[in-house]
Structure formats: structure tokens, C-alpha cells
């Protein structure tokens, strides 16, 4: 292994370095830094307006930081547009579910494989043998994921008519189909009932355990974060307030004060 490869292997999977975001006069993020290590479930918490969504949007490349850097396996991702983050192993889901409503569960999940295919319109017209083999492998991979997420029964059903909780699983299927190293989950518990939230918690943990995928979870549901996260980063007014194990962060006086003074308490 070359020295650069060794350094890369030792680097955190994702490093947020002194990131600031300013909207007009509003400082939404102010010098936030933290590391995410391989196989970790990291919960990002904070009261309303703390800067969680802004940070999530920087990680998924929808926002450009005014200052600082974000490194994936040691390389900056800031020059990369949002539609090319899947190629380096960053997958995401959306707060309000962003699927193609008229397409089937299977076709929505297949969309996720796009970043992993080498074919283009020329190879699709000539169809050398490897295109057929690659398509068969993709079909098998998507079918495995649908089975894994208990979606095989509805594989050919348009997603529009499915319950919200099922649509959220389809989003997960699409994200997993891209074979991410890290999965960014934007308030996955939103709109789910109590039972579904705990089912989701088990599923997130299972995805990490079975597939070794690192997870960043932005979430208001404190019970979910505290029960599944290995590491928690708390933001308030755009700054990092505390980080550590769920127990450490939960008992941090600054975190308690921030939540008591907010509507999230
Ligand atoms: N596009 C924008 N333009 C201007 N100000 C913004 C924009 N997005 C966020 N802000 C401001 O930045 C700050 C951080 O907002 P952000 O949405 O990141 O917080 P949050 O922690 O995700 O809050 P919530 O839990 O309510 O979603 C807030 O003061 C917000 O009003």
C-alpha cells in the first residue's frame, strides 16, 4: 500500500472542517467541524433553526459553504455537483419523499443504480455482451434490495398509492441501490407513527450492521436518535454545541439549556 493509500484508509470517512454558511446577513452555520468514522451512526440534532438542514444540504452538495471544507476519504467534495455525489459513495433520502409517483417501486429503485452503470446511448445501441451482463447484475441487485426491505410484494405497484411509511422504504431502496458508503437521512421519522419509528430505527441499525454503511441522521425525534446513534453532534444557532455519546450529549448542560429554551423541548 502506498503512503497516500495508508493516509486515506486512516482518514475519517467524512470530515466536516470549519464549515460556515451565510445567507444574506444570516449566519446559518458558523465554523462547524466534526468527523464521521466508518460504520458509525451519527445523529445530528439541534432545536429549530440550529443549522441541521443547512449542513445536510452542504453534505449533499445543494449548498456551497462560504468557508471551510468537506472531505470524503480525504478528498474535498466541494467541487462536485449534487448529481455526482452518488459516484463517490454518498447516498441520501429526502424529508418529504422525492420519488417518481407514477413509476413502480422497482423502477424507482432502479433509478438509484444509474450512478453505478457504465452504459450510455452508444453501448445501449450496439449492446456488447457486457451490457447484458451488467443489466442482469443490476436487476439482481435491485431485487435483493427489495427483498431486504420487504418490498418485493409491491415491486410492480406505482409508488403514488402506497402508504407513506412504505414510500420511505422505497426511498431507502433507491439510495441503497447506488451502493453508498455513507447514507444521509433527512428526518426519516417525519410523518411516521410510533411503531413505524421504532421499526425504522431497527432497519437503520440493520443496514449499518449488515452492509457496513455509515449513517448520518438528521432528526427531531430524540428517542430515535438516542436509541440508535453511536455518536451525536448537537448544533445551536449555527455552532456546534456538544458532541459525544448519546448519554454525554443528553446530559450536557448547554444542550439541556438550548432545548429547554426552544419549542422542541
Ligand atoms: N435558504 C435560506 N435563506 C435564508 N436563510 C436560511 C435559508 N435556509 C436556512 N436559513 C436560516 O438559517 C438558519 C438555520 O436553518 P436550518 O434550516 O439549517 O435549521 P434547522 O436546524 O434545519 O431547523 P429545523 O429543525 O427547523 O429544520 C435559520 O436561521 C434559517 O432561518
Explained architecture:
Involved in beta-(1-->2)glucan export. Transmembrane domains (TMD) form a pore in the inner membrane and the ATP-binding domain (NBD) is responsible for energy generation. It comes from Rhodopseudomonas faecalis. Residues 14-262 form the ABC transporter domain. Keywords: ATP-binding, Nucleotide-binding, Transport. By secondary structure, the chain is of the alpha/beta class. The protein has ten helices and ten strands. The chain is globular. The chain starts with a helix and ends in a 5-residue tail after the last helix. The mean pLDDT is 88. Bound molecules: adenosine-5'-triphosphate (ATP). Adenosine-5'-triphosphate is lined by residues 23, 26, 28, 46, 48-54.
Number of strands: 10
In percent, how helical is the residue content? 25-40%
What is the residue-mean pLDDT, rounded to a whole number? Answer: 88
Each distinct ligand: adenosine-5'-triphosphate
Give the percentage of residues in beta strands. Answer: 15-25%
The structural class is: alpha/beta
- Overall CATH class of the largest domain: Alpha Beta
Question: What order do the SSEs take from the amino end to the carboxyl end, as H and E?
Answer: HEEEHEEEHHHHEHEHEEHH
Count the helices. How many? 10
Described by strand count, sense and barrel closure, the largest sheet is: 6 strands, mixed
Terminal residue distance: 50 Å
Under CATH, the homologous superfamily of the largest domain reads: P-loop containing nucleotide triphosphate hydrolases
- Low-confidence segments, ≥5 residues, pLDDT <50? none
Query: How do the strands of the widest beta sheet line up side by side?
Result: 6-7-8-3-9-10
Task: Examine the secondary-structure arrangement and name the CATH architecture of the largest domain.
Answer: 3-Layer(aba) Sandwich
What count of domains describes the coordinates? 2
Round the Cα radius of gyration to an integer and report it: 19 Å
Amino acid at each position: 500500500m502506498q503512503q497516500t493509500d495508508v493516509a486515506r484508509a486512516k482518514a475519517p470517512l467524512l470530515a466536516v472542517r470549519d464549515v460556515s454558511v451565510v445567507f444574506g446577513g444570516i449566519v446559518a452555520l458558523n465554523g462547524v467541524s466534526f468527523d464521521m468514522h466508518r460504520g458509525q451512526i451519527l445523529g445530528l440534532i439541534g432545536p429549530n433553526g440550529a443549522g441541521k438542514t443547512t449542513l445536510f444540504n452542504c453534505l449533499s452538495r445543494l449548498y456551497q459553504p462560504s468557508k471551510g471544507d468537506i472531505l470524503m476519504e480525504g478528498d474535498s467534495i466541494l467541487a462536485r455537483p449534487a448529481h455526482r455525489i452518488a459516484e463517490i459513495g454518498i447516498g441520501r433520502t429526502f424529508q418529504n419523499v422525492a420519488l417518481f409517483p407514477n413509476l413502480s417501486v422497482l423502477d424507482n429503485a432502479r433509478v438509484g443504480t444509474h450512478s453505478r452503470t457504465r452504459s450510455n446511448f452508444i453501448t445501449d445501441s450496439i449492446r456488447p455482451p457486457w451490457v447484458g451482463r451488467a443489466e442482469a447484475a443490476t436487476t439482481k441487485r435491485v431485487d435483493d434490495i427489495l427483498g431486504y426491505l420487504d418490498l418485493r410484494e409491491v415491486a410492480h405497484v406505482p409508488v403514488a398509492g402506497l402508504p407513506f411509511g412504505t414510500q420511505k422504504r422505497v426511498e431507502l431502496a433507491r439510495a441503497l441501490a447506488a451502493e453508498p458508503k455513507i447514507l444521509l437521512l433527512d428526518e426519516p421519522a417525519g410523518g411516521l407513527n410510533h411503531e413505524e419509528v421504532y421499526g425504522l430505527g431497527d432497519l437503520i441499525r440493520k443496514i449499518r450492521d449488515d452492509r457496513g454503511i455509515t449513517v448520518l441522521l438528521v432528526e427531531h425525534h430524540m428517542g430515535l436518535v438516542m436509541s440508535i446513534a453511536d455518536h451525536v453532534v448537537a448544533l445551536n444557532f449555527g455552532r456546534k454545541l456538544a458532541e459525544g455519546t448519546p448519554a454525554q450529549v443528553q446530559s450536557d448542560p448547554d444542550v439541556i439549556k438550548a432545548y429547554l429554551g426552544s419549542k422542541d423541548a
